Sequence to fold (462 residues):
Amino acid sequence: MPATDLETIVSLCKRRGFIFPAAEIYGGFANTYDYGPLGVELKRNIRDAWWQAMVRERDDVVGLDAALITHPRVWVASGHVATFNDPLVDCKKCHLRWRLDHIEEGQYGPVKRDAAGNVLCPNDGGELTEPRQFNLMFKTQIGTVADDASMAFLPPETAQGIFINFENVVNSMRRKLPFGIAQTRVSFRNEITPGKFIFRTLEFEQMEMEYFCFPPKDRENPAEYLALHKAWIDARLSWYRDTLGIDASRLRVRYHEKEELSHYSAATADVEYLFPWGWGELEGIAARTDFDLTAHGNESGHPLTYFDEETKEHIVPWVIEPAAGLTRTLAVTMLEAYTEEPDEKGENRVVLKFRPNVAPVKLAVLPLSKNEALRPFARKVFDLVRPLWMTQYDETQSIGRRYRRQDEIGTPICITIDFQSVGEGGQPGDEAVTLRDRDTQSQVRVPLSSLVATLRERLPGC
Ligand code: GAP
Fold:
């Protein structure tokens, strides 16, 4: 069973060094979080698993790392300056600020209305102000003079950095359609967030890929384009299920209704997860047609086209965009991994049952006690495995407590060194260690000579 309430995860994240509320010593900083020593490893591992599936294991996708501070006209062309807005309302009584669409979607509980049917404040039922459109992009300023010419935006998505580099990638990498460009990066949105931990934050990481293909023969009925869209939805859904190990019963695909679609989109589907508060988006997979390349071609005066060798024509490719949230996926990975069950003694233990590929720490080397006689061999084992896998060395407190500590951070295997390993009373040791499995709690003895080979088998994809 995954965690059923968010508070349990929030407190474990802080206690065990995954995620801390930002700037706590200054009283905190709303909707921002810092990733601690284990959170940074978990985030990196999820990002690497995505990169592995989307770039390294594919012949048709290459990577990119575009500048964060982007030319302001990029955001004019993309439509973000004009339309990347949220409707904000204030309560006239308690003065809390809300997103009207989120209230109407029931994100704060059953919608309260007055006799005339107007939506009321979810907090105290107070009257709300008229909605105001609020642009979500953070502004920043380049240089020392603050005027309109020096103004720039922090990117609210990674996608535009990909579109504006389309021609560079085609020319430098000799790419033929269809092909994709992938990027993982931080994005910024000045959002009113409903306090769901790292689900919606001001600063978050995304993993996006733009897959460029030939325009469909029939633009009104783009069957082959929609089939490609469907193939990407299937591929992405199975990544969450098979690579991250998310239970299929808590994943679903939701196609956007016609009225939800952006004017340029031929279709959009979200991969959703059943969060403790209900279904929420993990990834959007959009069939964006030729909107972005055409828009940047028009705005810059530099057409972004592809030369079709067969027809000898310059065409504007169409695009499928799987856009995932890395930090949101991390929240789901934590929720899914969280388990409470009996330990060896029948007492309750908390275990994070991460797939080994994403577990922040893969191994813990644990001498049975602090006894000096155990240390040289234990350090030898530690030195052998730590260049290969993220490993902790811990000799403080009882072995049972150390197992519990490793269970709670999701370490798949503990390596225990005891007196049988090093020898006792003049008798030589067997130079073997005990491997203790996190999930089954079973133990097996392995000679040092075959330790690395055994661990390679038991830590697939690490
Ligand atoms: N280029 C398309 C795009 O950005 P999106 O649906 O706005 O699409 C993609 O964002 C993913 O980024 C979302 O599915 C979500 O996982 C993540 N995301 C978006 N806003 C977020 C926020 N404020 N905090 C955390 N994750 C966010």
